Amino acid sequence: MKVSGERTFAAPREIVWKVLNDPNAMAATIPGVESFDVQDDRNWRANVKIPLGLGTLGMTLKMEKTEQQEPELARLAIKGEGVGAMLNMTTAFRLNEDGGAATKMDWEAEVHIAGPVGAMGQRVLQPIVNQQVQQVLASLDEQVAKAQAQ
């Protein structure tokens, strides 16, 4: 399943870029994160609990930054494993200055879920993915505001 959109931040592109490439700031944007481990500047690992309506799905996520063109573009590959599901996701964002004091972010993600959880189908999973995306974007707003205030 593919999801995409845009978001405008009331901050210069350099600040948004810094937040998006700071593993600790990114850890704060992941819903249900229980632990986050920075292995190096391109590889991170997180244990998360993803809400699935009536319960949660525990997963270990391995994230790798596969492309970076500072301060404009980055791509991540994310692989996740949990009981009843395997996740493969690619995501990318592009930052453009929007009047100097603001930054427009175009983003996209392609999510593949296999196993019994994936068998629930896109009709069931799409609202869950959309909710997770909205939580990440709201948390990203907070992280950018915090970085700008410093």
Account of the 3D structure:
Helices cover 29% and strands 48% of the residues. The chain has 150 residues and is an alpha+beta fold. The mean pLDDT is 91. The chain has a 7-stranded antiparallel sheet with strand order 1-7-6-5-4-3-2, covered by helices on one side. Strand 5 and strand 6 (85-97) form a beta hairpin.
Write the SSE topology.
Elements: E1 2-9, H1 13-20, H2 23-29, E2 33-38, E3 43-51, E4 56-69, E5 73-82, E6 85-97, E7 103-114, H3 122-149
Antiparallel strand pairs: 1-7, 2-3, 3-4, 4-5, 5-6, 6-7
Helix pairs in contact: 1-3, 2-3
Which blocks of ≥5 consecutive residues have pLDDT under 50?
A: none
Helix/sheet category: alpha+beta
Number of strands: 7
Question: How are helices and strands ordered from N to C?
Answer: EHHEEEEEEH
Beta-strand fraction estimate: over 45%
- Main sheet properties: 7 strands, antiparallel
Sequence of strands across the biggest β-sheet: 1-7-6-5-4-3-2
Into which percent range does the helicity of residues fall? 25-40%
| Gap from first CA to last CA | 37 Å
Gyration radius, rounded? 15 Å
- Secondary structure tally, helices: 3
Instruction: Label the overall shape.
Output: globular
**Mean of residue pLDDT?**
91
